[in-house]
Design a protein that fits this description.
Helix content is 33%, strand content 15%. By secondary structure, it is of the alpha/beta class. The N and C termini lie far apart (47 Å).
């Protein structure tokens, strides 16, 4: 009697927004609503044609929900990715916004070290004056991860549910790196080892058909190589 292959486990796709003037200059962009550049829009629209649609990497039939940062650069990136395809169910979620940089907003790392007279400043261990601490960002990522794992496991358990139950997050550079770190159950300062270029995608998943075994399936795809 032929065996029935188990259903594919859900995947989590993390997309950083496209290029902005501040992503080019290296300025920390948290709550500031900096729009995509013309090149950023063109690059994301082109990427959408390649990877979004029926039978493609981002197949709306398999995406049960998309969580979008409230910043317009993330919202625009989401719209451009799906401009020639059906939009999946989606919502704006404060928990996937960028690190709150507080008084460091709009400054480069070199500016921060000079202006705050802290030549060894490290966001991964010190956080941001007037903004979020590393623990606060870690806790926020953990909330997001729990929400996602719960949705994935619930969808996967329902045999009548359509599609693979994938999740899409359209967010930001530091948030993506922090999410990947906590997905791997690492301390947040390990986030420095990950890269999230503008417009790039990383993919998380599960091993051995277990929601307890979280894994990484792809990192910084379509980024700068």
């Amino acid at each position: 009697m032929p065996s029935t292959a188990p259903r594919r486990m859900p995947r989590i796709y993390l997309v950083r927004h496209g290029e902005t003037a501040w992503s080019l200059s290296g300025q920390h962009t948290g709550k500031s609503d900096i729009p995509l550049t013309a090149n950023g829009e063109k690059t994301i629209a082109s990427l959408g044609l390649r990877i979004t649609g029926p039978g493609k990497l981002l197949d709306p039939a398999h995406i049960q929900h998309a969580f979008i940062s409230p910043r317009s650069r993330a919202q625009k990136t989401f719209q451009l990715l799906f401009q020639d395809s059906e939009l999946p169910a989606h919502s704006t979620d404060e928990d996937c916004q960028e690190w709150d940089y507080g008084q460091m907003e709009g400054k480069t790392a070199a500016d921060i070290r000079a202006e705050f007279k802290n030549p060894t400043w490290d966001i991964w261990t010190e956080g941001c004056v007037g903004g979020e601490t590393p623990q606060e960002v870690s806790d926020r990522c953990d909330r997001m991860i729990k929400k996602i794992v719960d949705k994935c496991s619930f969808h996967h358990a329902g045999e009548a549910n359509q599609g693979a139950g994938d999740i899409l997050i359209v967010s930001h550079g530091h948030f993506t790196r922090c999410f990947l770190t906590r997905w791997c159950k690492l301390e947040l300062d390990h986030g420095r080892i990950f890269v999230a270029d503008a417009g790039a995608m990383s993919i998380c998943g599960y091993q051995h058909h277990s929601f307890q075994e979280r894994s990484l399936l792809g990192l910084n795809l379509f980024g700068e190589l």
